[in-house]
Automatic annotation (TrEMBL):
Residues 13-147 form the Molybdopterin cofactor biosynthesis C (MoaC) domain. The lineage of its organism: Bacteria, Pseudomonadati, Pseudomonadota, Gammaproteobacteria, Pseudomonadales. GO terms for molecular function: cyclic pyranopterin monophosphate synthase activity. The active site is at D125. This is Cyclic pyranopterin monophosphate synthase. GO terms for biological process: Mo-molybdopterin cofactor biosynthetic process.
Amino acid sequence: MLTHLDSQGRANMVDVTDKATTSREAVAEARVRMRPETLRLIQQGGHPKGDVFAVARIAGIQAAKKTHDLIPLCHPLLLTGIRVELEADGEDRVRIVARCKLAGQTGVEMEALTAASVAALTLYDMCKAVDRGMVIEGIRVLEKRGGKSGDYQAEEGA
């Protein structure tokens, strides 16, 4: 049984020593709602801080690699693939999709969630001077493949 609690009820990292190494992948998303003029500024390349999407993408990738430093009890993982994409979602939102992959003994959901979250936070940080009312929302796992618990697919629009 996998648990973060030991026999005395204390928090510990789950021991995955005896788990099989399998191919694992997770996809997570986040959305950032902003004023339409803020999104237009980003899309037209006129933001004073440069290419906002490129910086947020790099921040998401770096965050996925450091998830174990940010989230207590997460295993340090050797990710074999990280992809972070940002795109306009309508006239006032950016959708961020993060995909993490590895061959290992534990899943990568936390890495994908961290990548999407940090990319969203970076987008906020870079744009807050022009739009303080931005809202980060909808952070969730979209897909998970591999591992003992099997596959998962989020319901559309949930």
